[in-house]
Design brief:
The chain is of the alpha+beta class and 543 residues long. 36% of the residues lie in helices and 14% in strands. It contains 16 helices and 18 strands. The relative contact order is 0.11. This is RBP10 protein.
């Protein structure tokens, strides 16, 4: 303080540049008294915007301060009230604002002074420090250094109070109602994500009703697994087989899937490029981009059969029979004849009603084996990053496949191996197919632009996907995060929601809507300045 300090008119205050966030719940700062100067007429506290800064904090309306010369607290008045001890050189004074109950208290050298002062429920209070006599020097700490007072313990105390209030929320006589509602929410969540066996078992135990047919659930489950395995082309074909017209009526979804398929071709996981990889004779007969949707746990559980002339083949995720292609509104982005002639095409019966097929092993498979296969499909996975099979013990968590992926078409596919990641699995023919696919994808983008106008999202998706080709190592480049398997999840969720919506079913499960509503309520509480929202996190109740 460089002033004269002859009387109170020489006092001056300084406040922080930003107000205390109303939604932070509890706010704390400390001020170290470097030197008390001549008389130690110092004040530490809070003030609202517009308060006169030529006075010590606490003397004017909407101003609050704890003064060091007499230990009094001033609350919007020139008359102070005894509060605590005086403070001088070397002391550390803290000010804690509790926006949950609109109180504040001060600390000295790490100890709470214990008396709570009530603040009016107003926002935009600023930390403030005032000085009056020459030589007074203070140093403020807003968290850039460890605090002397254990504010974390105080925050834990209030977090526990808020969480206890939530847990003790009175339900009254509606317990049965709530329980039935929660059971239905859990059941619909399991059905939405395709956990067919789990949903069936849960419905049997809780006596709830599943609105969707089991066959439909399993079809969606298999399509999701294809996407999560990086085999987007097969997922597109399966969708067109099972839900004709769905993608043609959802051009944005179709374009998203095609862009993701291009990324998976770069990654070497899409069947369009995997079919070029070197395989043993056994794997060549069983894999060529086959849209097999169930894991192969032995021949008794296989759904794969040879196709006739009218059967659709896996051709970049688009039905290759003329009868199917003739109804397509957009370019098919189909494979060239040379790329699909390396092995005989194969197809799949997606309907559970067609599960009895032509092989002897399938004719003799029992119902129990079929149920076991379906259960294993939900929990087992395989991962093909860049054509390399990786085993992991990670399982499905909250509807998300972590590090493991699915759809083992043949045990011999485990023979594929590569010492390091390479573009399109390191196969030249696969790289050429990927480039051709990219040209066709560009044509699709231009067609959509002509029909629906410019779409910035489409443009960004296409640019991001094509940008992978600008780097010798796409996995370690600025846009390499696209190759992370976790990026498949939003695409999978969008396709699953579109399928449900096409069947007049909710595109989002009620459980997710409830969680979204709770999160939105917390955001609204933060906007209106209800500090308790800072200690009520939805994530705390999901584990």
């Amino acid at each position: 303080f460089p002033g004269h300090g002859k009387n109170h008119k020489d006092a001056a205050s300084v406040r922080a540049t930003h107000p205390i966030p109303a939604a932070c719940g509890i706010y704390y700062f400390e001020v170290k008294i470097v030197s008390k100067g001549r008389d130690g007429y110092m004040g530490i506290g809070l003030s609202a915007q517009g308060v006169n800064m030529n006075r010590l904090p606490g003397w004017d309306k909407h101003s609050y301060g704890y003064h060091g010369d007499d230990g009094h607290s001033f609350c919007s008045s020139g008359t102070g009230q005894p509060y605590g001890p005086t403070f001088t050189t070397g002391d550390v004074i803290g000010c804690c604002v509790n926006l949950i109950n609109n109180t504040c208290f001060y600390t000295k050298n790490g100890h709470s002074l214990g008396k709570f002062l009530f603040l009016p429920s107003q926002s935009n209070l600023y930390p403030t420090v005032g000085l009056q006599t020459p030589g007074e020097i203070v140093d403020a700490n807003f968290g850039q250094q460890p605090f002397v007072f254990d504010i974390e313990d105080y925050m834990r105390e209030w977090r526990a109070k808020i969480q206890s209030t939530i847990k003790r929320f009175p339900i009254g006589d509606r317990l049965g109602e709530w329980q039935a509602m929660l059971q239905n929410m859990v059941s619909s969540y399991l059905v939405h994500h395709g956990y067919c066996s789990t949903a069936t078992a849960f419905a049997r135990v809780t006596d709830t009703t599943i609105q969707e047919e089991q066959t439909s659930i399993k079809n969606r489950q298999r399509i999701q697994k294809l996407v999560l395995a990086g085999r987007v082309g097969e997922a597109i074909e399966a969708t067109q087989q099972l839900y004709p017209g769905l993608l043609e009526h959802n051009p944005n979804l179709l374009f998203m899937l095609k862009c993701r398929q291009f990324v998976e071709m770069v990654n070497g996981t899409d069947s369009e490029v995997r079919c070029f990889s070197a395989r043993s004779p056994r794997s060549q007969d069983s894999y060529p981009g086959s849209p097999s949707l169930s894991p192969r746990h032995g021949s008794s559980n296989s759904h794969v059969h040879s196709t006739g002339a009218d059967s659709p083949t896996c051709s970049n995720g688009v039905m290759s029979t003329k009868s199917k292609q003739s109804h397509s509104k957009y370019p098919t982005l189909s494979s060239s004849s040379s790329s699909s002639s390396s092995s005989s095409p194969s197809s799949v019966n997606y309907s559970e009603s067609n599960s009895t097929d032509s092989t002897k092993s399938q004719q003799h498979s029992s119902t129990s084996n079929q149920e076991t296969s379906d259960s294993e499909m939900e929990m087992e996975a395989e991962h093909y990053p860049n054509g390399v099979l990786e085993n992991s013990s990670t399982r499905i968590m909250n509807g998300t496949y972590k590090h493991e992926e699915i759809l083992q078409t043949d045990e011999s596919s485990m023979e594929d191996s590569c010492p390091q990641r390479q573009l399109c699995g390191g196969n030249h023919a696969a790289t050429e197919r990927m480039i051709q696919f990219g040209r066709e994808l560009q044509m699709l983008s231009e067609q959509l632009c002509r029909e629906y106008g410019k779409n910035t999202m489409h443009k960004k998706m296409l640019q991001d996907a094509f940008s992978l080709l600008a780097y010798s190592d796409p996995w370690n480049c600025p846009v390499g995060q696209q190759l992370d398997p976790i990026q498949r999840e939003p695409v999978c969720a969008a396709l699953n929601s579109a399928i449900l919506e096409s069947q007049n079913l909710p595109k989002q499960p009620p459980l997710m809507l409830a969680l979204g509503q709770a999160s939105e309520c917390l955001r609204l509480m933060a906007r209106v300045g209800l500090g308790s929202c800072s200690f009520a996190r939805v994530d705390d109740y999901l584990h």
